[in-house]
Every structure is written in structure tokens, then in C-alpha cells.
Design goal:
With 418 residues, the chain is an alpha+beta fold. Helices cover 51% and strands 12% of the residues. It binds 5-S-methyl-5-thio-alpha-D-ribofuranose (SR1) and magnesium ion (MG).
């Protein structure tokens, strides 16, 4: 393909990609039979589903700007390169979790990948009140596998450091997270918006210098604790499910950072689904029943994370950190070290969780869980519960020792009339 970057269109796609054998192998060579749909509803990219005689495929192409804002916010095409690399590492570290990649074109910022037919975006499923069997187990294990296998607990030190170098160049997307997630919610930033009726609650957060410094403590870790490759954007819009299968997509924000980052962001998105339920279910009993299911998912996700991390610690600890030569080979237990690592991961996860709960209501890129609620005063009440619980998590990340304490806190905030 010609090297000069050009965005694909419904019309140009068959002609441009019909010559790529990695794609025609999947969907067939007869381009006149290809059906092309643009389905991108995210904030950044073009996404096409292409159906041919032989099969179906997803074509994702980065645009040279932030789609949701427009050309006034230019953004590197290189993000496709980091997404491609992250997809390969997800596959290595947790086989079958990510869509299979068939083709990558760096100059055109195009990735051709498996179409997850029959799957829906989890966020929409949570709004609809649908159940997914095995959801917590898959996500908890995935977060543990990604965290452990991309870290100095497992990788060769040379490979780890080279990989950190590679992903450090994803600085434009890390910059988005640094601003939109960690900073903008806590002052009147240009792209911020919030629901009417939240001013007083927001002032409580912005006046809380202790909480803001805790958020900055976490940002310091985000920028400098290159512990493992994180997905970097593991919200419920990056998870696709059937009623019994779960896959994870969209790792373009991948970076080497704290091991608790993905777990924390994920729990935050379950908590926002939880708090928003009273607006999505007409029947109060249905709402509370579904809320209980979400709480169970949060608890089971953390349980699966800890179990899997523990298993990998005992079976795959071959890196430079906490080596067996210092513990097991001396006839000594490494249990204390494992507990200490898990405690650090949990503390960071709790902090990231609170911060993500804030940014989705205050900065750019709100989530549909709250944003689709038409009754503004109800939306403000539910968002206030979420915002104030986020503050408690950030302030108390050191003392909330278990997921049980976190879920009890959610139950309390869910009753608050703010
Ligand atoms: C400008 S990008 C806004 C948000 O969308 C992505 O999915 C990330 O969550 C990012 O923070
Ligand atoms: Mg995304």
C-alpha cells in the first residue's frame, strides 16, 4: 500500500485492502461482495466491520486527531503501533483474551483483527441489566496475568527494560490520562463538564488539598513506577461479552505502570454501573437485585485476581524480583513478600478506582452509565454518591484492606441522599 497516510472510507476500503492477502485470506478476494460498515463509537478511531463471502473482520484505523473533539486536537497515529504491540503482549500473557490480529500497517495506522461476533460492549450490557457468566473470573485472572507476566517478577530483565523503552514512547496517550484522569477533574479545566446540581459536591473535592495530594501521589506512580504493562484503559467499554464469554479490546493506552492500575479502573467502572442502576431499572427490586450481582462481580474479580497472582507467584516467579534463591531455595517461605506485594497492588487499585470515579463525571469523556440518565436531578444524586465514595477511596486507600470493605462502603453511599 502507498505509504502516505489516508483515512479509509466506506468506498475506498475494499479497493485499498482487497490487495492485502492477510485480509483476503480471512474474508475472501471478491471485494465487490464486501459489505462495509463504520461502527466506531469510541472517542478516538475509525472502526469498520467488513463482511465478505468467506468471513468477517474488524478494521481499526487511527485518525490524526481525537475523533470526539475533532481536528483541533491532533493526536499521533503511532497509537495504532502501541495498540498492535499491546495486543500481541496480551495474547502472550493471557492467551485468547484479545482479538486475534491478522494484519498491521504502521504508516496507515491500520490493524485488521478478529471480529468478536455475538459479543456486545459490557457497558451497554450493564445498563441493560444483563448477566455474564464467568465475567469476574476472566477479568480478575486477566488483570493478574497481565500484571505478573509483564513485570520483573516474571520477565528477563533485558526484555522488560526494552519493553518499557518501547511503551514509554506512547507518551501522547499517557499524556491524555495524566490530564483527563489525574488532573482536570480537580480544577476548572477547559474541556470539563458536569451535571447540573453537582457544584457543591465538586467544591468539596476541589477544596480537599489532602485528597488532591493523594491523587498526585498516584500520578507520581503512574509516571514513574514502570512495574508492568497495563492495558491502560480497562473500563467497561473496553470489554466485550456474550452471556458466557468475555474478551478485552482497545489497549491503545498501554503503558508500563503500577500493577494495580487496570484492576482499579475496572472496579471503578463496575461501581459506576452499580450507582447508576436506580435510573435504569423501573422496578426497585430489580435494581437492587442487579446491584447485588454487580457487587458480587467486584468481589469475585478481586478474589480471582489474588488467586491467580498467588498461583503465578508460586509457579512462574523467574524474574529478578523476590527470587526463589532468596526464599524457597533457602527452605524459607516467601508468603510475607507476596502479601506485601498484593497489599501495595490493592492500595494503588483503590486509589485509581476513586480517581476514575471522579474523572468520568467531571472531565472529558463521561460514561453512558450516568450520561444516558435523562432525569437530571436523579442523575446528579447518583453521581454525587459516586463522587463522594471516590473521595473516601482516595483518602483511605491505605486503610481499606479488603474488597469486602470497599463493597460495604458502596452499599452505604448507595443509600445517601445528597
Ligand atoms: C480524548 S480520549 C478520552 C478518553 O477516551 C478513552 O477511551 C480514554 O478513556 C480517554 O481517557
Ligand atoms: Mg478505547
Amino acid at each position: 500500500m502507498n505509504d502516505e497516510y489516508k483515512p479509509l472510507t466506506l468506498e475506498s476500503l475494499p479497493k485499498r485492502l482487497g490487495v492485502v492477502s492477510a485480509i483476503t485470506d480471512q474474508i475472501g478476494v471478491e471485494t465487490r461482495n464486501w459489505e462495509v460498515k463504520e461502527v466506531g463509537d469510541g472517542n478516538l478511531n475509525l472502526v469498520f466491520i467488513v463482511t465478505g463471502r468467506k468471513g468477517i473482520i474488524v478494521i481499526k484505523q487511527a485518525l490524526p486527531y481525537v475523533r470526539v473533539v475533532g481536528e483541533s486536537w491532533p493526536l499521533t497515529l503511532d497509537r495504532a503501533y502501541f495498540e498492535y504491540n499491546a495486543l500481541l503482549r496480551q495474547e502472550q500473557r493471557d492467551e485468547g483474551i484479545a482479538p486475534a490480529v491478522f494484519y498491521f500497517d504502521k504508516a496507515q495506522a491500520i490493524i485488521a483483527m478478529e471480529c468478536l461476533s455475538g459479543h456486545k460492549i459490557l457497558r451497554g450490557m450493564l445498563i441493560e441489566g444483563l448477566i455474564v457468566q464467568g465475567l469476574a473470573d476472566t477479568i480478575g485472572k486477566h488483570c493478574a496475568r497481565l500484571a505478573f507476566r509483564g513485570s520483573d517478577l516474571s520477565m528477563e530483565t533485558k526484555d522488560k527494560k526494552e519493553d518499557v523503552c518501547l511503551f514509554q514512547k506512547n507518551y501522547e496517550l499517557m499524556g491524555i490520562t495524566e490530564n483527563l484522569v489525574f488532573t482536570d477533574p480537580y480544577f476548572k479545566a477547559e474541556m470539563n463538564s458536569h451535571t447540573e446540581g453537582l457544584d457543591e459536591t465538586i467544591q468539596v473535592l476541589r477544596d480537599d488539598t489532602i485528597m488532591k495530594s493523594r491523587v498526585q501521589d498516584m500520578l507520581r506512580k503512574f509516571t514513574s513506577n514502570a512495574e508492568t504493562m497495563c492495558h491502560g484503559d480497562l473500563h467497561s467499554g473496553s470489554i466485550m461479552c456474550t452471556d458466557s464469554k468475555t474478551r478485552i479490546i482497545d489497549p491503545e493506552f498501554a503503558f508500563y505502570g503500577p500493577m494495580g492500575f487496570d484492576l482499579g479502573m475496572n472496579i471503578a467502572n463496575f461501581l459506576m454501573a452499580y450507582f447508576s442502576q436506580p435510573a435504569h431499572r423501573e422496578n426497585a427490586l430489580e435494581a437492587t437485585t442487579y446491584q447485588s450481582w454487580i457487587i458480587q462481580i467486584i468481589e469475585d474479580t478481586v478474589y480471582a485476581f489474588n488467586q491467580e497472582f498467588n498461583k503465578l507467584w508460586n509457579t512462574e516467579r523467574k524474574g529478578i524480583l523476590y527470587p526463589k534463591s532468596l526464599f524457597e531455595d533457602q527452605g524459607q517461605s516467601s508468603e510475607h513478600a507476596l502479601k506485601s506485594v498484593l497489599k501495595d497492588i490493592w492500595r494503588d487499585a483503590v486509589s485509581v478506582c476513586g480517581i476514575e470515579m471522579h474523572r468520568r463525571c467531571l472531565s472529558l469523556a463521561h460514561n453512558a452509565d450516568f450520561e444516558s440518565i435523562e432525569n437530571i436531578s436523579l442523575r446528579a444524586t447518583l453521581e454525587a454518591r459516586n463522587l463522594l465514595m471516590g473521595r473516601e477511596l482516595i483518602l483511605n486507600n491505605n486503610s481499606i484492606r479488603s474488597v469486602g470493605e470497599l463493597s460495604s462502603m458502596a452499599l452505604e453511599f448507595n443509600k445517601k441522599d445528597i
